[in-house]
Write a structure and sequence with these properties.
The protein has 161 residues and is an all-alpha fold. The protein contains 6 helices and no strands. It has 2 domains: 92 residues, no CATH class; 67 residues. InterPro entries: Uncharacterised_PGPGW_TM. Keywords: Membrane, Transmembrane, Transmembrane helix.
Length: 161
């Protein structure tokens, strides 16, 4: 006489299996989303590292890329907080005085002006709107991040004379 194997003989029925699957962490993204997060995060980290030595918000982009990468690869999450702290220190230092703010605004406007010049003047090296639009985008990103840093540090308050 043969014995029938039942799910209960192995620690539970199908309900137990479904319940274990339902309790899987909700933070694990779909494999396609993981690839997209890893690709986007990797690009942001690479651009941020380049901007550490070039003019631009390098540490903030490294931080943003690391946040995306940590969602795709959870073991990288331990690096997010130290980089966030350094990025916020840099953002605060950039708006610590009126001179720094004025210099950053002039640099942003200079990038936008240079972008327009590169787009319109045919005799400059690498002339064209591909180079010009990159410069304009860099200037706009600089001004937006400067405004964000100022608002974060100074809390949107205004000075009274």
């Amino acid at each position: 006489m043969s014995r029938r194997v039942r799910p209960q003989d192995y620690g539970g029925g199908m309900d137990e299996v479904r319940r274990a699957d339902d309790e899987a962490p909700a933070t694990v993204p779909h494999p396609v989303a993981r690839v997209a997060l890893a690709a986007g995060g990797g690009v942001l980290v690479l651009v941020g590292v380049a901007l550490l030595v070039l003019p631009g918000p390098g540490l903030l982009l490294v931080f943003a890329g690391l946040v995306l990468l940590s969602r795709a690869v959870p073991s990288l999450a331990r690096y997010v907080e130290p980089v966030r702290a350094r990025a916020m220190q840099g953002a605060e230092a950039g708006v610590a005085s009126g001179w720094r703010i004025a210099g950053s605004v002039l640099a942003g406007l200079g990038l936008i002006g240079a972008g327009v010049a590169w787009g319109l003047l045919p005799w400059v090296p690498f002339a064209g709107w591909s180079t010009g639009s990159g410069l304009i985008l860099s200037g706009v990103v600089l001004l937006v991040l400067l405004a964000w840093s100022h608002r974060r540090v100074h809390g949107g308050r205004t000075r009274r004379a």
